[in-house]
Amino acid sequence: RPHTMGGREMVTKRAALEEDKQNDNMSCKKIFIGSPNNFTFKPGTGGLDDTISDDDLKDYFGQFGVITQVMQLFHKDTGRKKGVGFIYFEDEDSVDKIVLIGAHIVKERVLEAQKALSESRLTG
Questions:
Q1: Tens digits of residue pLDDT in 32-83
Q2: How many CA within 13 A on the CB side of residue 87?
Q3: Could you give the dihedral angle defined by the CA atoms of residues 24, 123, 89 and 48, in that order, rounded to the nearest 10 degrees?
Q4: How many Cβ atoms from other residues are within 10 Å of residue 111's Cβ?
Q5: What are the φ and ψ backbone dihedral angles of 123, each rounded to 5 degrees?
Q6: Cβ of 69: how many Cβ atoms within 10 Å?
Q7: What H or E segment, with its residue span, contains residue 56?
Q8: pTM for the whole thing?
Q9: How many angstroms separate the first and last alpha carbons of the chain?
Q10: Is the distance from CB of 106 to CB of 57 less than 8 angstroms?
Q11: Cα–Cα distance measured from residue 64 to residue 111, given in angstroms and rounded to the nearest whole number
């Protein structure tokens, strides 16, 4: 993007499911990562734990596109990781690639990635 053909700039549009168009689910630039919900895995091996750093997530997910921010969530009272987090990308194509793959393994931990939609998009 952008593309040129015969010296003219072409405007491209993303192909999308009708459901995504209705839900305004097309231009998401962040993913939510955590324990897998949509497939089976060995118990005790899913989600983010203390062995996975922000740099580990950048190293792995950086292969899909430019990362702008990594945010692992922590419990306020204990300071321990919640096992979930968000990764922000420069481009929505990176998010689409990651979500399409489904399961990701980082440092022997199984993670599932989903588009992280804002609360206003979820509630309408």
A1: 999 887 776 777 788 899 999 999 999 999 999 999 999 999 999 998 999 9
A2: 32
A3: -140
A4: 27
A5: -90, -10
A6: 11
A7: helix 54-61
A8: 0.74
A9: 30
A10: yes
A11: 15
